[in-house]
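User: Could you check the structure of this?
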Amino acid sequence: MSDTQLNRKKISIGGLLISLGIIYGAIGTSPLYVMSAVFRDTVINAEVVKGCLSAIFWTLSIQATVKYIILTLRADNIGEGGIFSLYALVRRTKFKWLLVPAVIGGSALLADGVITPSISISAALEGLRFYNPDVKTVPMVIGILFVLFFLQQFGSGFMWKPFGPYMTLWFLTLGILGVYQLQNNWSVLACLNPYYAFHLLITHPFGFTLFGAIFLCTTGAETIYSDMGHSNKKNIRASWAFVKTMLLLNYFGQGAWLIAQEGRTLQSFRGGNPFYLSMPESFIPYGIAMAVIATIVASQALISGSFTIINEVIRLNLWPKMRIKHPSLLKGQLYIPSINWILMFGCIGVVLYFKESKNMQHAYGLAIALTMLMTTTLLNFYMHMKRYNKYFIYLIITYFLLLELSFFIANMSKFTHGGWITLLIALILIFVMTIWHLAKKIRKRYVEMVRLEDHQQKLIDLSHDNSLTKYATHLVYMTSANNPEEIEAKIIYSILQKRPKRADIYWFLHVDVVDEPYRMEYKVKHVAVDDIIRVDFRLGFRVAPKINLLFRKVVEDLVKNKEVDITSRYQSLNKNNVIGDFKFVVVEKFLSYDNDLPAFEKLVLNIYFIMKHFSMSEAKAFGLDSSSVKIEHFPMVISQPKDLSMRRIN
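Assistant: Sure, the predicted structure tokens are below.
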């Protein structure tokens, strides 16, 4: 990412283009399906159209503008946003249960990442039915999805640059198309009055259900906050004025066209989508092509966002370790192969199951509402932490919770019509995060720690014991002990008893994941001069723990400061200034059969170790060079069984 893009202090052309190309992709494609979702099964009625337009205006104004643009963007975690960045800010409070809304919201957002490419690309391609009502769009959607996910492995850096200019053109086109229809009926602008929305809700027999479809206009509002790290708050807020204006012009233009067709149904028109039907007929082919490209842009942003979320939950110890690649130099650009293919098969499965975009809308709305509810919950604690006026907090949070809960219930009314798909995907993700988190807590509770000073002299004596063959010049262990005065008993056992490992210097490395996204610090403690050294890394939750590279930098600094001598201590090699070898030992545990655990903890740990079997090894997760790593497996004996009554016989 360029310096302009990273500038956190001012509005720039580059920053505005990034906001338009990456941050507003999802919300920018919502006009494709919102109006068709509202009128899919009903006769077009002018009063309903006016009520919908009013509801769309006020939903975008309050939900997107007030909640996200004005309030949530203030929850800036060193320039980064998103539900886990927000959780990282508020977890400093005494309320440990705040992990729950973070996990639920993050899972729903990942479910959204499965449904967004499916519904948006499907809706765009369904415009072809204007020319051929029997055209099969499913194979085309699957083909585009396959190509999109296949290209992820090469990095999306080459794709980001044209996104901004193209989405600028897209939004301008939306606005112009809206004005084209508004020329026939400027009176629909009276729907800015909230009266029409309240009237629809109160008088229409299915008003509450319609609001569930109307809520789709906020699709992508959550990504405004999640993708904040790509630009900055000033650029996002400045570009929102343009985006919102163009979106509203298009919605109101579709509304003007719908009012002119009062008494008819969308099914009576070729294509049946007011987004395309409100265009000049000669422009429809170009409109379809532009919509397909715009939905690909929106999908790319959601896919990249999904990789970022998974990377965050891995670093926060809520997900199995996975292989993460950095295919381009763009800041934060990630590629997680396993997640990429899971997302692809998930999207293809959704397309094959629902077949048409109109059938996906209820599943989509549920994911959006659930994510927003969880963000509001965390935002409440953030505002209290920042000492906002308490009456303002109660008023604004209560309003958002009631609004989002209403939309959630409205979408739940169509649970059997596809809403269950969202909850199923979210529940699977919640299950994995919950098991991983609980297992880590159980393991941590039972891990046996010993005082390092009680074994310090033994390590020094072993280091100088010439009767033993030297195992390595530098022996490096990864430790989970937060307290620098302690060390795992298994590590001491590995050094002293499981083939005594003589080394000139013993290194103990500990990684602490901090709440700031890109923090990179380290602290060195010389436990025993020239014999035992501990290094504590403090890494942000978005920093890849490439211990090989980070440790090398630490050693270089220590050598430069003359705090350590890393030349080999073999006389022949020392004389020629040959650097000593570094050997990493990683202790991996497996669940022993010799355990007497409570049933629930045993179930959690069994599932955990099954998942761990399919995850990346600790050595690879820490970015250690396999040629210099020794993996040692230890049985995890958490609770010894009771004494056995055994009698000796002759």
